[in-house]
Amino acid sequence: MPSLQAEAVEAMSRAFRQMEANIAPPAQRPFRNSFIHRYENKGIHEALLQKLARYISGLNAVAVLLMTGYVQEANVIFRTLDEIQEDIFFLASAETNDARTKHHAQYLEAFYSDPVFSHVEGSQYIPKPNLVPRKKIRAHTMNAMGQGINVSKALSASESVGTAYSGYVHAASENIMEMYGGDPPRFHLTGMRGTPRATEGANSAEFYIYRGLMATTVVAKAFGDAALVKTLYEFMAQYESANGHASPPAPGKSV
């Protein structure tokens, strides 16, 4: 990972630790012959912190994958990060924009539904949570936070990016064939280092790191930590100056 990108992930991690210290930690709940950790307060701040933890962890995982050329697998994580960031903005808007709706209550109920404790011993049935549709999450966030944007066009663009990366998650033929090429042509089974795909993956990673900085800043705003928000904005300005920020490159067609 380039040095400034590594600094960005470290800045996110420091911010995370600072916010983590401001809420009660998960408690131990007895489970079978041991215990598991769960937050006792199942609120928006706890949900935001968990989502941010997964985003930062995902960025670190992407760095490991790209270092060895596993671009397809990194793209799967990019798709995950897309949804995590959408969730963070959706949840944070309830605090930062005073835009709490019935969908936030529905989201939290589904998020904290816990098969570990709701599952009936001996039964194969696991209750399916009542998820908020992704379109509603996107629409709410853009209406609440997207001042001055064309919501319809923004939603269409967001869905297009999601569709493009979903092919990596579900292993669509079009996406799998990006693993094929070279001289002689072959499927690259042990990573794609040294190919244009690796460069595409690195460029996408830079964009997702920038989005991670934005997501971390939004979480800090939801926590009401003005000093931390200021620090993150200053780092984002440094990051923008060094890298700029634009839409991620569309997945290519050849190795």
CA(first)-CA(last) distance: 22 Å
User: In one word, what is the shape?
Assistant: globular
Q: Number of domains in the coordinates?
A: 1
Over the alpha carbons, how many angstroms does the gyration radius reach? 20 Å
Structural class: mainly alpha
Number of helix segments?
10
If you average the pLDDT, what whole number results?
Answer: 89
What is the N-to-C succession of helices and strands?
Answer: HEEHHHHHHHEEHH
Strand content: 5-15%
Low-confidence stretches: none
Q: What spatial order of strands do you see in the largest sheet? A: 1-2
Helix content range of the residues, please? 55-70%
Question: What can you tell me about this protein's structure?
Answer:
It is built from 10 helices and 4 strands. With 255 residues, the protein is mainly α. It has one domain (3-243). The protein has a two-stranded antiparallel ribbon. A two-stranded antiparallel ribbon has the order 3-4. Helix 1 (3-20) packs parallel to helix 9 (196-222) and helix 3 packs parallel to helix 9. It starts with a helix and ends in a 12-residue tail after the last helix. The model has no long low-confidence stretch (mean pLDDT 89).
Structural descriptors:
globular; about 65% helix; mainly alpha; 10 helices; two-stranded antiparallel ribbon; about 260 residues
Summarize it.
The chain has 255 residues and is mainly alpha-helical. It has helices spanning 3-20, 44-67, 71-96, 102-111, 115-118, 134-145, 151-169, 173-176, 196-222, 226-243; strands at residues 27-31, 34-38, 180-181, 186-187.
